[in-house]
Specification:
Heme Oxygenase, Chain A, mainly alpha
Length: 219
């Protein structure tokens, strides 16, 4: 029997295929991405990381105890370990957190974060986890697809950043989130979950694209 998350993944395959071949992703894993574009991406990622932490907390507020406890653990992980790693990366890029927090989220980032927050606040727990799944899962697949490129990547900053998404601990987290959706899927509308997964997948593509184009507000 095919798991529900695999059906979700298949339905968005054309979007994910575009993500795998996006110039930002390809150049990042090969080491040729201009550092200016990676700095832009990292700066935009700050608000996204904070939003993910809030989303896990929102899901926890309405979930059964076992799921709520795990969501709070993940929220704490985002707010502590992940943020510590983020600040370390900023230092390697010659950036300071005090400056990054003042950078305005891009139009795409704003829309993506609002979608996640609205879904996690107004939707069911399974809808919330489904909205977050494409981000976590697609990073793991990107790492797998471009493992050969990363092996020959001479940019230490890019190599150290990317290798995390192919490590066992990260892959275990992705599998855990997939299992949660599979277990809770019957509690929600399959059609609705498919729409959420597709929208989040599209935003993932748009996030990479915005970083590559150094997207700014028009006025």
């Amino acid at each position: 029997m095919v798991e529900f998350t695999e059906l979700l993944r298949r339905s968005a395959d054309h979007v994910w295929s575009a993500i795998f071949e996006h110039p930002f992703v390809v150049e990042l894993y090969s080491g040729s991405l201009p550092l200016e574009k990676f700095r832009y991406y990292v700066a935009q990622d700050y608000n996204y990381l904070v939003t993910v932490s809030k989303c896990f907390s929102l899901i926890a507020s309405k979930a059964e105890y076992a799921v709520a406890r795990r969501m709070l653990e993940l929220a704490h992980l985002e707010a502590t370990t992940e943020m510590e790693n983020y600040e370390k990366l900023l230092g390697e890029l010659g950036m300071k957190l005090e400056a990054v927090v003042k950078i305005e989220p891009s139009p795409t980032n704003t829309a993506y974060m609002n979608f996640l927050l609205a879904t996690c606040a107004l939707g069911s727990p399974v809808e919330g986890v489904t909205s977050l799944l494409p981000c976590f899962w697609s990073y793991a697949e990107i790492a797998s697809k471009h493992a050969d490129k990363l092996a020959n990547n001479r940019n230490e900053i890019y190599r150290n950043w990317a290798k995390i998404y192919g490590e066992k601990e990260y892959l275990n987290l992705v599998n855990e989130l997939k299992a949660l959706v599979d277990e809770m899927a019957s509690e929600g509308s399959y059609k609705k979950l498919g729409e959420i997964f597709m929208t989040a997948s599209r935003y993932e593509y748009m996030f990479w694209d915005a970083a590559y184009k150094l997207e700014k507000w028009p006025l």
